[in-house]
Specification:
Rossmann fold; 2 domains; alpha/beta; 366 residues; 5-stranded parallel β-sheet
């Protein structure tokens, strides 16, 4: 029988197989997203609280605004929004009662020599109108807990006073105000930091997955093995205790019958790419082959062998080379094929073992 030579061919990408393998690993993106979000939050916390401005304390106060009746328009003056209030707070009408109230709290406001500058004071205060213009939420943020609480009480007093002296209002009432400042852990940018961390980790994970899949030299379907090694693939053996798809089992039986027509004896040598010294993987493949073939092909047998054994005294009609699916044994497979060719042992075909039946069913749409 003429020896089959192994010829090296240029590699090509099986896109369908590539994407199916990639989709099978997408589950890792869930913990990656979680890890990215946590990393983003921790990084933002360290940048702001440890290496940045430091720990911030915050209070929230809710005030209700009773607008005065406008006789000219016949309506209430209700066009005050968040921008209007943040503009009014630094005005003279608000600043003097606010500073006086802070002085009563023991906090001095001055450009030099005071505990607070005017710029820092107004930067710590933010007014907001969530929905109804009659309800205002005032948030105070400052690195010092005591100063935060003092500013909160003072700004509430200043707003109540402003409601009395301004004709646009009947009164401004404090509905609720935090007595104790709480440490500010979550900010408006915390969600952005978590989202950014998750996105960056997701992109990094996708790049790594794509790189790993692109560098994967394992064999996953018979067509890949046939094209890469330019040898016929006899069939596919699924893992132990996994049902062989009927189509693949039928193809294997048909290949075995054709192979028996080409050889003059029933003894063949079975080599496995995973074996090094002992033919343990080849022996398991031979047992699995017998299970799949069943009673119909009892005359077909293969003797497990390795290259390290002396083959000169063995009757070797031909060799069948088993390649494990999904395992990176390309280097050993090529070495095995090369050694068999040097020893002038005919390579009758390849056998794909330990195959993932579920993957093959998706690939072939069985």
């Amino acid at each position: 029988m003429r020896m089959t030579e192994h010829r090296r061919v240029s590699e090509r990408i099986n896109l369908r197989c590539f994407y199916l393998r990639l989709l099978r690993r997408l589950w890792v993106l869930i913990p990656v997203l979680a890890a990215g979000a946590v990393t983003g939050l921790v990084t933002y916390y360290l940048a702001v609280s440890i290496f940045g401005p430091g720990i911030q304390y915050e209070t929230n106060s809710t005030l209700y605004i009773d607008f005065a009746y406008d006789p000219e328009t016949g309506t209430l003056v209700d066009y005050y929004n968040a921008y209007t209030w943040n503009t009014l707070i630094p005005t003279d009408e608000m600043t003097k009662p606010l500073v006086d109230a802070l002085a009563g709290e023991g906090v001095t406001v001055a450009e030099e020599g005071g505990q607070l500058t005017r710029e820092a004071l107004f930067a710590a205060i933010r007014a907001d109108i969530p929905s109804d213009v009659r309800v205002m939420v005032v948030t105070v943020t400052h690195p010092d807990r005591g100063v935060t609480e003092a500013i909160t009480r003072s700004v509430c007093k200043a707003l109540v006073h402003y409601g009395k002296i301004n004709d646009a209002f009947d009164q401004i009432r404090v509905l609720q105000s935090d007595e104790k400042a709480h440490r500010k852990v979550w900010t408006d940018r915390s969600a952005v930091a978590a989202g950014l961390g998750a996105v960056l980790f997701l992109l990094g994970a996708l790049c790594i997955l794509l790189l790993m899949e692109a560098m994967d030299d394992a064999v996953y379907v018979p067509e890949e093995a046939a094209y890469r090694y330019q040898l016929p693939v006899l069939g596919v053996l699924t893992r132990e205790a996994e049902e062989e798809p009927s189509m693949l089992r039928g193809e294997l039986i048909a290949s075995v019958r054709e192979l028996e027509k080409k050889v003059t004896a029933s003894e063949l040598s079975l080599f496995h790419a995973s074996d090094r010294e002992e033919p343990s993987a080849a022996a398991r493949a031979a047992v699995r082959l017998g299970e799949v073939l069943g009673q119909q092909e009892q005359t077909f047998s293969c003797t497990p062998c390795t290259l390290s054994r002396d083959l000169r005294g063995m009757p070797c009609i031909g060799a069948v080379v088993a390649i494990p699916m999904g395992q990176r044994e390309r280097a050993m497979t090529e070495h095995l094929l090369s050694q068999l060719a040097q020893r002038e042992i005919p390579i009758l075909g390849l056998l794909l073992t330990e195959a993932d039946g579920a993957f093959l069913k998706r690939y072939y749409r069985l």
